[in-house]
Amino acid sequence: MSRPTIHYSVIVPAYKENGNIRPLVTRIYNALRQYDSPVPADQVEVIIVDDNSRDGSVENVQSLQQEGYNVRIIVRTTERGLSSAVVRGFQEAVGDNMLCMDADLQHPPEYVPSMLAAMSPSATFVLGTRYAKGVEMDKDWPLYRRVISSGARLLALPLTTASDPMSGFFGVRKEAFLKARNLNSQGFKIALDLLIKAHIAPQAIAEVPFSFGVRAEGESKLTGKVMIKYLEQLAELYWYKFSFLIVIFVIVAVIALIWVAQSFLESA
């Protein structure tokens, strides 16, 4: 009997997240196996992209495989970073509908079926959003984390109509992903990079409301260095999207200066 075709891939970048891998994978498949799940569990694979944690993650995944879960792990030994891990996972994915989520359980696995189902040939990008009616945005986070999250979102608003490009819980169709060029593999927010560089139209974005969960194991990866990288990424994206306006402004300014100079000389 042939195995079902994989149409959906869930990509999970991870570094020292072994304590979260088992609950993450089992909760994803428990949600997919519910009678009202819009996506069949046997059409979904989970890919852990691990940055050489050496914390038992490989053995944990092997144990889950033996129990029948369709999960595999890619261990990277020469690369590091969240965005490059997501890109590697998308490149390795079998499914045409690819979902990215954090390993720390702050993206609740119970939302995976609805996130996967939201993608279609017309909705090539799905975004989990905390900015929807009835959602208590980051309600369990400390104040400083909420301030940082809101500030990061405000800085990105001129770049995209998406309500929450900072959530990190997003999906993209493979054909849209393959259109993206010059992705910033060192950037902090790969979703924002994809929205801009894959030229995702506003009408092609589906949004699914969700509330952040609480990290169960491990430590947060948010550091000052990460925030600086995000600001660098924003600068690169602003130039990518608006460079033509900057060039036009410079040309107009130069012409205006020449005109003023000529006027001054003629009147002298």
TrEMBL record:
Pathway(s) annotated for this protein in UniProt: Protein modification; protein glycosylation
Recorded GO MF terms: dolichyl-phosphate beta-D-mannosyltransferase activity; metal ion binding
Any one cellular-component term (Gene Ontology): endoplasmic reticulum membrane
Reactions the enzyme catalyzes: a di-trans,poly-cis-dolichyl phosphate + GDP-alpha-D-mannose = a di-trans,poly-cis-dolichyl beta-D-mannosyl phosphate + GDP
One Pfam entry name: Glycos_transf_2
Gene3D superfamilies: Spore Coat Polysaccharide Biosynthesis Protein SpsA, Chain A
Alphabetical keyword list: Endoplasmic reticulum, Glycosyltransferase, Magnesium, Manganese, Membrane, Metal-binding, Transferase, Transmembrane, Transmembrane helix
BP GO terms, sorted: dolichol-linked oligosaccharide biosynthetic process; GPI anchor biosynthetic process; protein O-linked glycosylation via mannose
Signal peptide (from-to): none
Positions of transmembrane segments: 237-261
Coiled-coil features, chain-numbered ranges: none
Broad EC category: transferase
Family of the protein in this entry: Belongs to the glycosyltransferase 2 family.
Protein known as: Dolichol-phosphate mannosyltransferase subunit 1
Lineage, broadest ranks: Eukaryota, Fungi, Dikarya, Basidiomycota, Agaricomycotina
